[in-house]
Amino acid sequence: MTRKKLPHYLIEKNNLVVQVTISALFAIAFLAIYYPFSNTTWFSVEDESKFIYTSFFIIFSTIFLIFSRVMMYYTSKRLIRFTFPKYILWNVAEIVLIGLFHAYISLRIMQIQGYTQALIIGKSILISLIALGFPFIVTDLSFALIDTRRILNIAKRVIKSNIANNNTKNTTSAPLVTENPDIINFNDYTGAQKFAVKLENIYYIKAEGNYVEVFYNNKEGISSFVLRNKIQAIEDAFKGTPLMRCHRTYIVNTNNIKVLRTESDYYYIDFDKKELESVPISKTYSEKIVKRFAEI
C-alpha cells in the first residue's frame, strides 16, 4: 500500500517560517517560566556568564531549526516522497538533537553537579519536547484548520458556480478553446465543458489546490467561476493566447493588464478594477510577461 503524501500545507514555505518563529518564541517563554523551578536548568539573564550561554543556546537552536526546515522544504520538493511518519521522525529528531545540545552545555560547560548524566540528558530532551513539541502540534493543527476552511470555501464556490451556470453544462468532452478565438471554454479534469466566457472579459485564473478559479467581468461586475482542474492543464491549453502563466498559482490575461509595477525586486500586475487583487509575477515568468506587456 502506498502511503499518502504529506499534506502540502505542512511544508509550505510561509507556514514553515511561521512555525519556526512561533516555536522559538514559545520555547523562550517556556524556559523563562520553567527556570526558577528547576535545579538543572542554567538559563539566566542576571548572571553574565549564564546569560552568554543562554543567548548562545537560543541563537544556535533557532539557526538549527531554520536550517532544518529549509532542508525539509527542499528535500520534500526534490528528493523523497514525504509522508506523515517521515515528517514526525524529522520533528522528533530536531527535538532530540536540541535536547542533547542543551545536555552537553549543562554537563560540559556549566558542569551541573549532583545529578547523573542520564538524568540531565533525559530532562534536557523532555524540556525540548515540551518547549518545541507543543508549538509544533498547535501550528500544524492550525494549518490543517485553515486548509480545511479553504477547501470548504472552494466547495461552496463550486456549488454556487455550478448552479449559476447550469445551462452551460455539457457532459461531453470539448476543447478548451473553440473555433471562435474570442470565446474561451473551460473544461474540468475529466474533459467536460463547464464554463464559457469571452476572452476580453477574463482577468486572471488562480489555482487553489486541485481547483482553479476564473475571475472575469460581466454585467453585474467582477464574478468568478470555480472548476476542478490543474493550472498546468489550463496553461497547456491556452498556449499561444493572451492567457499566460505569470506565477505558480496564477494565469493572467495580458490584454487586461493596466499597470506593471515593481515592489521589493518583484513585479506585480494591477487591473482597472479595484476589487481585483494584485497578481504577483515570479522570476521564472517575469521576462516573458514584461516582454508581452511592452508589446501591448
Describe the structure.
About 4% of the residues have low confidence. The protein folds into 2 domains: 150 residues, no CATH class; 129 residues, OB fold (Dihydrolipoamide Acetyltransferase, E2P) (Beta Barrel), CATH 2.40.50.1020. The strands form 3 sheets. A 5-stranded antiparallel sheet has the order 5-4-3-7-6. A hairpin with a 2-residue loop joins β4 and β5. It is of the alpha+beta class.
Estimated share of beta-strand residues:
15-25%
Quick check: average pLDDT? 82
Tally of separate helices: 6
Which class do the helix and strand fractions yield? alpha+beta
User: Helix and strand string, N-terminal first?
Assistant: HHHHEEEEEHEEEEEH
Globally, the shape reads elongated
- Tell me the radius of gyration: 26 Å
The tally of structural domains comes to: 2
Q: Report how far the terminal alpha carbons are from each other.
A: 53 Å
- Give the proportion of residues in helices: 40-55%
